């Protein structure tokens, strides 16, 4: 661990954080994180914020001095020994995070969210398809509450025939989804149409 890049990548892997989620948690841009991980930047004015977001010792991160983790850091296990995707590798104590999901299920990455988000019922998804709504561009990260019931015209995340995207919700007749293209008929919630949850947070800073 001779360089800042090596130490940062080790800490990010241990905490299961992507460049995007670290940037969000540390209050910096994703390109700035990328410059450090790629070795293009050997220092950063945000060392303290980065260390706090990763819950590692700032001296270790900045200079490789001393131990990586604070005394008593409650490490659950290394990734190689973690057979369950339902438990984080390391518990987060200073920031609230939710797990990032994809179409295959939960991943081993997390993203920081505001305190108003209920982490116990939330999931995060990166938008990989054009929803047609300018508020939700491709590449942004949305956080959904899988327990909260949406109201009419609320934005929701849904999977239709294996494709996950953003729709507006409509009440009545068991609920239906409204496409951004108003020429498309309302899509009833049945068969291969599955609503994942109400969108409660979105971050464009997580675009990659």
Summarize the structure in words.
The chain is α+β, with helices and mostly antiparallel strands and 208 residues long. The protein folds into two domains: 1-94, lambda repressor-like DNA-binding domains (434 Repressor (Amino-terminal Domain)), CATH 1.10.260; 119-206, Umud Fragment, subunit A (Ribbon), CATH 2.10.109. It has five helices and nine strands. The protein has a nine-stranded mixed beta sheet with strand order 2-1-3-4-9-5-6-7-8. Strand 7 and strand 8 (187-188) form a beta hairpin. Helix 2 packs across helix 3 and helix 2 packs across helix 4 (47-54). The longest helix has 12 residues, at 4-15.
Furnish the topology, listing elements before pairings.
Layout: H1 4-15, H2 19-26, H3 30-37, H4 47-54, H5 58-63, E1 97-102, E2 105-112, E3 122-126, E4 141-145, E5 155-160, E6 163-170, E7 176-178, E8 187-188, E9 193-203
């Amino acid at each position: 661990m001779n360089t800042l890049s090596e130490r940062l990548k080790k800490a990010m892997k241990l905490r299961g954080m992507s460049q995007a989620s670290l940037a969000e948690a540390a209050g910096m841009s994703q390109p700035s994180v990328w410059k450090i991980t790629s070795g293009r930047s050997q220092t950063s004015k945000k060392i303290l914020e980065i260390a706090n977001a990763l819950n590692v010792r700032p001296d270790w991160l900045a200079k490789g001095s001393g131990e990586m983790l604070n005394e008593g850091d409650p490490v659950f296990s290394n990734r190689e020994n973690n057979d369950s995707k339902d438990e984080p590798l390391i518990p987060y104590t200073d920031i609230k995070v939710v797990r990032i999901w994809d179409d295959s299920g939960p991943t081993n990455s997390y993203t920081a969210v505001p305190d108003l988000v209920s982490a116990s019922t939330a999931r995060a998804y990166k938008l990989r398809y054009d929803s047609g709504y300018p508020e939700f561009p491709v590449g942004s990260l949305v956080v959904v509450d899988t327990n909260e019931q949406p109201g009419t015209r609320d934005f929701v995340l849904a999977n239709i025939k294996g494709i996950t995207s953003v729709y507006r919700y409509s009440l009545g007749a068991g609920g239906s989804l409204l496409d951004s293209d108003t020429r498309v008929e309302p899509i009833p919630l049945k068969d291969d149409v599955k609503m994942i949850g109400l969108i409660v947070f979105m971050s464009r800073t997580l675009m990659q």
